[in-house]
Every structure is written in structure tokens, then in C-alpha cells.
Design a protein that fits this description.
The protein has 329 residues and is mainly alpha-helical. The protein is built from 15 helices and five strands. 37% of the residues are buried.
Length: 329
């Protein structure tokens, strides 16, 4: 039986951090073996928020794709490309924009939240409101059946399904309705205890040197109730434990931490040091592969170029069908 097609994208944010790796990339690594995967860099989507300062997008794309490859995303298993290289996304976006009611976009919770929260940029633009319409085009232009995303993207996917249904209702059954595959994302907290995010400046990057990684881990916040070495602590309230021990430590180590922390038998530095080598060991092969890949400066462009050509071919076939369905051709 033919493999089901999966599509997923990431905005180009530059070097990946542990949150991306354990939350998204590890899932992609599994999926690329089981499905017909299309993974792309959503560089036009980056413009919806960064239109006034687009200068970093190109380099961020390169850094991000280097990390994809270093982490094991395989261009022979998955089609890797840049959104802006496949102009058909823009054509389908225009056509979908004709049939998408404004009210659907205006009630999108992500839209309302971001308008409210982001104060350093003016997001009252047509492109930002239309973000989910472009995202729908990204997905259905490949007739993707499954879209793996985190819970934060679920409302966008629901909109995509609605837009797809409306298209099929108006013009005939051209597209499969994309199914949401919710990715279980482990809780990865940054050095300040908030969710790990580049914009919070609390991230541990895959390509940080072992020394920097160790420094970041050793300086991470712990259970705030544990002010002195003699104070007992609660691992379940400790951002360090919840991220690093939960993810990397074996049962025995976790038990040692739980008892030692609750009884003030171990100090935080000792506790942290017990897991640092495991984190470094996990990242070592990724870092080695990245160093190898960086030796060939043309590699990323070549991979994205080949992926873009393949994606364009598929998107082109869909668009011929779409123009016919709308009776433009
Ligand atoms: N909106 C997604 C994000 O910010 C990126 C994205 C764009 C996407 N188009 C997509 C994800 C299509 C899945 C499918 O993470
Ligand atoms: Fe956290 Fe470990 Fe310190 Fe307890 S001992 S507060 S689990 S870092």
C-alpha cells in the first residue's frame, strides 16, 4: 500500500534548541521512515511577523536546515524545501483567499492572542490575518493527508479543514481533508524555568559547545523554595528536574534525586552534574554531523534546490487540477 503523505513546516528561526529537537524533530525522524514526508521552511510565514526586518530569514533558513540534517532528517527519505521556492503555494493562497470568510480568520484564537501580545510589531496586516489561509495552501497543494503539529497549531489546522471542505463543496472533491496528528511534546523548559524559546533568551541550542551547554544547565533555575543547601526541595516543582532528569535520567538516578532533594541530602549542583554527561552524549553525534555538513557550504542549497524541484512538480500537477475545477482553464 502506498505510504500516506505527511506535510509539516517550521518557520525559519535559526539554530534549533532542545525544545525543537525533543518536541518536533524526534517525531519527524520517526515519521520520515513511515510516511511520504514533505518538510519545508515556512519563510513566507516568517514575513507575516518580520516583514519590516527580513534580513535574517535567509541565514536562519540555512542554520535551521543544517540542524535538521545534523539531527538525522534525511533528504533521501523526506522532501525538504523552502516555501518561497514553490510559487504555486502563492497561487493556491490567492484562490483560497477568495472563498475564506473573514469571520473565520478573525475568530482564530492564535490571531487574537498574538495581536494582543505582540507589541513591538504592527500585525494589523492582510498577510498576518491570512496566515492560516497560506498554511492551508501549504498543506493541500501536496494533498497531504496528515499534518503533525503541536497543540498550539491545532486551531490553524481546524481552519485548514474548514477551508478545504469549502473548496471541495464549491468546486468538487479535489482535496483530501488533512487530519491533525497531535504531537506529544515533552515539557522542555529554558534556563529561567519558562518554556524554552529563542525569544525568551533561555534556550540551549543543539549547536552550543559542550562547555556552554554545561554552563547553561548548571545555571538553570531550580525549585525556588530551595534557597540553601539545607532546605529540602521538590523535584516536581523544579524546572531542571522536570526537563533534564525526566528526559535523560534512568529510574535509579531519578530515585536518587527524588530522595536526595526531598531530604536535602544532595545539593543542586551535584544533582545537575549527574545528568549533564547524558545530555552531552545525546548531542555529541548531532554536533559531529553538523561539523561535517558545515564543511560543504553548498550542501544545504543543493538539498533545498532538489527538494524544491520535486515539490514544484507535485504542486504543479495539483494546480492544473485546481484551475480546471474552478473552470479557469
Ligand atoms: N505555522 C507553523 C508554525 O508556526 C508553520 C507552518 C506553516 C506549518 N505552514 C504549515 C506547519 C503547514 C504545518 C503545516 O509552526
Ligand atoms: Fe532541582 Fe535537583 Fe536541586 Fe532538587 S536537587 S531542586 S531536583 S536541581
Amino acid at each position: 500500500m502506498a505510504k500516506k503523505r505527511i506535510l509539516s513546516g517550521m518557520r525559519p528561526t535559526g539554530k534549533l534548541h532542545l525544545g525543537h529537537y525533543y518536541g518536533v524533530i524526534q517525531n519527524w525522524l520517526k515519521l520520515q521512515k513511515e510516511y511520504d514526508c514533505y518538510f519545508f521552511v515556512a519563510d513566507w510565514h516568517a514575513l507575516t511577523t518580520d516583514y519590516a526586518s527580513p534580513g535574517a530569514i535567509k541565514e536562519s533558513t540555512r542554520e535551521m536546515v543544517l540542524d535538521w540534517l545534523a539531527a538525522g532528517i534525511d533528504p533521501n527519505e523526506a522532501v525538504l524545501f523552502r516555501q518561497s521556492a514553490v510559487k504555486e503555494h502563492a497561487e493556491l493562497f490567492v484562490l483560497l483567499s477568495m472563498i475564506t470568510p473573514l469571520s473565520w480568520l478573525e475568530r482564530n484564537p492564535t490571531y487574537k492572542e498574538q495581536l494582543h501580545e505582540v507589541s513591538d510589531k504592527d500585525l494589523h496586516t492582510f498577510g498576518f490575518l491570512g496566515y492560516p489561509v497560506l498554511q492551508t495552501a501549504d498543506i493541500i497543494i501536496y494533498k497531504a493527508e496528515v499534518v503533525p503539529v503541536g497543540i498550539d497549531q491545532a486551531p490553524h489546522l481546524e481552519l485548514s479543514r474548514e477551508i478545504t471542505r469549502r473548496f471541495n463543496f464549491l468546486y468538487g472533491e479535489v482535496f483530501p481533508e488533512p487530519q491533525t496528528m497531535l504531537t506529544e511534546v515533552p515539557k522542555i523548559l529554558g534556563t529561567d524555568g519558562r518554556k524554552m524559546s529563542k525569544s525568551y533568551n533561555n534556550a540551549v541550542f543543539l549547536s552550543d559547545s559542550p562547555k556552554v551547554i554545561e554552563q547553561k544547565l548548571l545555571s538553570m533555575v531550580t525549585d525556588t523554595a530551595r534557597k540553601r543547601r539545607t532546605d529540602p526541595g521538590s523535584p516536581d516543582l523544579c524546572p531542571f528536574y522536570l526537563t533534564y532528569h525526566v528526559l535523560f535520567s534512568d529510574l535509579q538516578t531519578k530515585e536518587w534525586v527524588r530522595q536526595g532533594c526531598a531530604a536535602a541530602g544532595i545539593g543542586c549542583i551535584e544533582c545537575k552534574k549527574s545528568v549533564v554527561p547524558r545530555v552531552l552524549a545525546d548531542l555529541e553525534p548531532i554536533q559531529a554531523r553538523r561539523a561535517e555538513l558545515e564543511k560543504d557550504p553548498e550542501m544545504v542549497n543543493a538539498i533545498l534546490g532538489a527538494g524544491g524541484a520535486l515539490a514544484s512538480a507535485v504542486a504543479g500537477v495539483t494546480m492544473a487540477e485546481v484551475r480546471k475545477a474552478i473552470r479557469l482553464e
